[in-house]
Amino acid sequence: MNQKRFTSLITVLIVALSVNAVLAQSANSFSEQTKLIRIKKIASEWQGSLLTLHTRDGQEIDGRLVKVTGGNYHIEIGAREIEIPLADVVKVSFKPGAPELMLSFASAIMGGAFLSGAFLIANEDAKSGDVSLAAVLGMLGGGLWGYTTFYETEVIELE
């Protein structure tokens, strides 16, 4: 009877350890799959873009992404192309460009139009100087909002 309990306990312990090992392995696999999905997104959507690769040792490499193949990022720095292994990169960042600048500018225009229009609706006898001041203040507010919303560095954490 005592031997049966001991054998059952050992069996349960072995099964529990095996299940734990399988779950830990699948968690690592999930983490690796997530990293590969992010790398694939970078490779397909950001090819030709200026970016910064942040390596494990703290180095930052600025350049134009040529392609991602063979387990390496191919980055063009000036006239030369270098390869950085995928495993060495912990995050990738992109500085804002012309589209983000245009969105910031458009939000400034819309802010000016909104505030000057609201001022005209609120006060039908408004002077042109007052409407102009409202437009300038609206442009400043809209531009500030657009800048802080759209014109920021995008960071993709790989780990």
Q: Which key phrases capture this entry?
A:
159 residues, alpha+beta, SH3 type barrels, 6-stranded antiparallel β-sheet, 58% helix, 24% strand, elongated
The termini sit apart by 51 Å
User: How many strands appear in the DSSP assignment?
Assistant: 6
Task: Please identify the structural class as seen in this structure.
Answer: alpha+beta
Mean pLDDT: 83
Supply Rg: 28 Å
Give the strand order of the largest sheet, numbering strands 1, 2, ... along the chain. Answer: 4-3-2-1-5-6
Count of domains: 2
CATH topology of the largest domain: SH3 type barrels
Helix content: 55-70%
Under CATH at level 1, the class of the largest domain stands as: Mainly Beta
Largest sheet: 6 strands, antiparallel
What general outline do the C-alpha atoms trace? elongated
- Using the 3D structure, state the CATH architecture of the largest domain: Roll
pLDDT below 50 for ≥5 consecutive residues: which ranges? none
Number of helices in the DSSP assignment: 3
Q: List the secondary-structure elements in sequence, H or E.
A: HEEEEEHHE
Assembly type = single chain
Descriptive report:
This protein has 159 residues and is of the alpha+beta class. The chain folds into two domains: 2-94, SH3 type barrels; 98-153, no CATH class. The chain is built from three helices and six strands; from the N terminus they run αβββββααβ. A six-stranded antiparallel β-sheet has the order 4-3-2-1-5-6. Strand 2 (60-69) and strand 3 form a beta hairpin. The longest helix is centred in the first third of the chain and has 44 residues, at 2-45. It is elongated. The model has no long low-confidence stretch (mean pLDDT 83).
